[in-house]
Write a structure and sequence with these properties.
Structural class: alpha+beta
Largest sheet: 5 strands, antiparallel
Distance between the termini: 59 Å
Oligomer: single chain
Number of domains: 2
Strand content: 25-35%
Helix content: 25-40%
Shape: globular
Order of helices and strands: HEEHEEE
Length: about 130
């Protein structure tokens, strides 16, 4: 009989060993999936009372990884809200990729309304992340 705290050895090639390995793989797979769970609606952030779909992506990851574009869908629901959603997404992108929230916007949330890029109800910003 094993004493408490003594490691359990699994015999390779046996049915019990295969079962233990499959179980271990299943547990590890489930644990890994926890970090990739879809965002719950309670985690979403509202801007001006509206929820916007926004994404930030680098313009050219190899040549200029700090340059990025933000696209915000549903801008007609609230232009002010869409602007803030774009600012939020751009800031999040820069913090995650460069460790800084400093951004130089070529077209951004503080751009005059007549100079904003809105096509098919999508607001597009362009900026460059500044390194810390």
């Amino acid at each position: 009989m094993k004493e408490q705290g003594e490691p359990v050895q699994v015999m390779r090639g046996t049915k019990a060993g295969r079962t233990a390995m499959v179980s271990m793989f299943a547990i590890l797979s489930l644990m890994a999936a926890c970090g990739t769970a879809p965002t719950r609606s309670s985690d979403r952030v509202a801007f001006d009372g509206q929820y916007f779909r926004a994404s930030a992506k680098p313009v050219d990851k190899r040549k200029a990884p700090a340059e990025f574009r933000v696209t915000v869908s549903g801008a007609s629901a609230s232009l002010d809200g869409a602007r803030e959603a774009g600012r939020f997404e751009g800031t999040k992108f820069c913090v995650q990729n460069f460790g800084s929230s400093r951004i130089v916007w070529s077209v951004g949330p503080d751009t005059e309304p007549q100079n904003l890029r809105i096509v098919d109800d999508k607001l597009t910003f362009a900026g460059t992340c500044l390194r810390p």
